[in-house]
Each structure stands twice: as structure tokens, then as C-alpha cells.
Design brief:
CATH class of the largest domain: Alpha Beta
Number of domains: 2
Strand content: 5-15%
Radius of gyration: 21 Å
CATH superfamily of the largest domain: Type I PLP-dependent aspartate aminotransferase-like (Major domain)
Number of strands: 15
Helix content: 25-40%
Length: 374
């Protein structure tokens, strides 16, 4: 089965991990600091690493002080954790509809969803295409809310010449194997606000405070540390950060490969009837995590099943988040965001990863043409 996504691991990655395994540090050590510094150069803002992308979202919401009584406005066209981690902190999730072409959070819909209880507006860079951050910044600022970017798909992408990690108050990344770079599991939170970043760093380290200037009882002894607010152990270990730094050295090549493959799909599929290709706005410099087409005429399920039967691992990204039973049980209903519902009904992700060969891509295209033409 040709997968829709796959990690790219070469000898330099393996060597970096082996070196870490032979060192004195397996968990938090010097490679964590190095990876955070290396990632900052790409993200455009200081970073705190965490154990996975879900942990990054949970940490960002905690750093922003999200809790019971607060509302978080976000998109339904995302993996469920964008919303679930806010709900787990006691917030009410308010879903706003998406733009028809990019499937990103629609600033006008977000503005209409804001209330006096809104504490955060969370965008998602769907498939690697940045959301409309200048407009969303105005929405968040007018509400007195933090702007959060779920850039799990978008490390390496840029918006109007600015890297995605420097656009929101808090930005989260994921380094799952199918993402643009991998640490196996892993994630990060970026912020240009030192106070928010320190809150994120403390939360991901069980809430521990070691800075003598912040201790309530500084005379306890040299071993002393305190927890002022509850946190969790979301630390990313040295051995995985070693892999992350090695992957970052290849990120430009990954981006070039994904861009070439996406352009090749654009060319090879341009004349296929019953198919709508993904949009790219002129100001966007996306690092394509997904290549999401739309299958028209109510044939998405048929095409999905026939492509899979042919050994091509297409995927659907995503069920609108409020349609998961956990949100249905909270009273959310189908039809809440019509544009997102229409997008979901047609969406299909074709295989896209840095090491995808032209031969395998031709196979995807030929099979899709055959299925749609019959």
C-alpha cells in the first residue's frame, strides 16, 4: 500500500540519534536546547519543545490561561485535538466556518462567533497553507483574546514573507512521522511573548519552578523546587531532539520536494473532470503537508474505496471536529458550519511526502483518472 504520508529518515538522522544514545543524556539535556534554538530559526520565534502536537495545543491553551467560563473560537476542519484540548481545560469551544478555497478559518465567521467570553481565537494552517493571520489578528485583538495558530501542518510555511511561528501570540507544531519533519512523536510551542513562553515551559515541566527569584520559600535548600500551578510532563527527550535537529538541516530539501510534487499534481490533474484541486493564494508560501483534492458529484467514498483497493493509501482529512461523538454529546449538531461540511463531503488527500517518486505519483494520477472516468 502506497501511504498518503511517510517520514524521510537518512543516515544523518540515524547518526544523530546514535550519538545521542551514546551520550550521558537521553531525556532533557543539551540537545533539547539545541533543537529549540534550531527550530527558532525556522519558526521565527523562540520555541519550547513538547512530547507531541496534542501536548503543544494543551500547553498553549494552558499558557494562555484558558479555563472554565472561557470561549475558544476555532475551525472544525482540523484534527479533533485543536478543539479537544481547549475543552479539557473547561472552555467552551465555538466553531466558526471555513473559507471555501483553503478550508482555513474564515475571519468573517470568526468575528461573528466572538462574544464577551472569547479568550482565544485558534486558526489552523490546513494542509500547510497559512490562514489569514492579519485579519484574524484584528478579530482577536478587538475581542481582547489571544491569537493561537495550530501550525501542525505548516512548519516551513510563510505568510506574506513571515514564518508561521511569528504570526500569532502562540503557535503550535507537530513532528509526527507524516508531518513536514519528524522527531518520531513530538511538538513545540512558539511565542514572541516571553511571559507566555515561560508559562508554556513551566507547564510542560510539571509546573516546576526552580528560579530562585520566583520561589516562595527560597531558603529551603539547594535542592528546592516548587509547583505554583499544575502542569504535566510533556518534555521531549534529548534523543528525539537530536533527530529533530538533523531533520531541520534537511527541511529546505523537504520543502522543495513537496513543492515540486504538488506542482506536478497540479499539472497532471488539471484537466480531470469531477475534480477540484487545492488553492494557493498569491501571498502564501506553503510547505504542503497534504495535497487535498475535492471529488465532485457525490463520488468521494467510491473513489476512496477504489483507490485503496488499488493499493493507494488516500485519506480523508478531516471529519468536522464537532461531529465526533464527544462533541455531539455536548450538544453540537451537524450543519453547524455548512462550508466545512461541504468541504468534508468532497475532500480526499492524495499521497504526498518528500520521497514520493515520480513513478509512484504517476501511478496515483493514472489510477485516479481511471476511477473518475468509469
Amino acid at each position: 500500500m502506497l501511504p498518503y504520508g511517510r517520514q524521510s529518515v537518512d543516515g544523518s538522522d540515524v547518526a544523530a540519534v546514535v550519538e545521542a544514545l551514546r551520550s550521558d543524556w537521553l531525556t532533557t539535556g543539551p540537545r533539547v536546547t539545541r533543537f529549540e534554538r534550531d527550530l527558532q530559526a525556522v519558526a521565527g520565534a523562540p520555541c519550547v519543545t513538547v512530547s507531541n502536537g496534542t501536548a503543544a495545543l494543551h500547553t498553549a491553551y494552558a499558557a494562555a490561561g484558558i479555563g472554565p467560563g472561557d470561549e475558544v473560537v476555532t475551525t472544525p476542519m482540523t484534527f479533533v485535538t485543536t478543539a479537544a484540548t481547549a475543552a479539557m481545560l473547561g472552555a467552551t469551544v465555538v466553531f466558526a466556518d471555513v473559507e471555501d478555497d483553503t478550508a482555513n478559518l474564515d475571519p468573517a465567521a470568526a468575528e461573528a462567533a466572538v462574544t464577551s467570553r472569547t479568550r482565544a481565537v485558534t486558526a489552523v494552517d490546513y494542509a500547510g497553507h497559512p490562514a489569514e493571520y492579519d485579519q484574524l489578528r484584528k478579530v482577536a485583538d478587538s475581542a481582547g483574546a489571544v491569537l493561537i495558530a495550530d501550525a501542525a501542518h505548516a512548519v516551513g510555511s510563510a505568510y506574506r514573507g513571515r514564518p508561521v511561528g511569528a504570526l500569532a501570540d502562540l503557535t503550535t507544531f507537530s513532528f509526527f512521522p507524516t508531518k513536514n519533519l519528524t522527531t518520531g512523536e513530538g511538538g513545540a510551542v512558539a511565542s514572541t511573548d516571553p511571559a507566555l513562553l515561560e508559562r508554556a515551559r513551566t507547564f510542560r515541566t510539571v509546573g516546576l519552578v526552580r528560579d530562585p527569584a520566583r520561589l516562595r520559600h527560597p531558603d529551603e535548600g539547594g535542592w528546592h523546587q516548587e509547583v505554583h500551578e499544575f502542569g504535566l510532563n510533556y518534555r521531549l527527550p534529548d534523543v528525539l531532539c537530536a533527530l529533530g535537529s538533523a531533520q531541520l538541516r534537511r527541511l529546505a530539501d523537504f520543502k522543495a520536494s513537496r513543492a515540486r510534487l504538488a506542482a506536478r499534481y497540479d499539472e497532471l490533474l488539471a484537466d480531470v473532470p469531477g475534480l477540484r484541486l487545492p488553492a494557493r493564494r498569491a501571498w502564501a508560501d506553503p510547505m504542503r503537508h497534504l495535497y487535498p483534492v475535492r471529488v465532485l458529484g457525490g463520488r468521494r467514498r467510491e473513489v476512496y474505496e477504489r483507490m485503496r483497493a488499488a493499493g493507494i493509501g488516500v485519506q480523508v482529512n478531516y471529519l468536522p471536529a464537532y461531529r465526533h461523538p464527544v462533541f455531539e454529546d455536548l450538544g453540537y449538531r451537524r450543519g453547524l458550519c455548512p462550508v466545512a461540511e461541504a468541504f468534508y463531503a468532497e475532500q480526499l488527500s492524495l499521497p504526498l511526502f518528500a520521497d514520493l517518486t515520480d513513478t509512484d505519483q504517476d501511478r496515483v494520477v493514472d489510477t485516479l483518472r481511471t476511477v473518475l472516468g468509469s
